Amino acid sequence: MSVHLQRKNGFLAEWLGRGLQNLLRRFESARNLLLIEQVDA
Question: What tens digit of pLDDT does each residue of 6-24 get?
Answer without folding.
Answer: 777 888 889 998 988 888 8
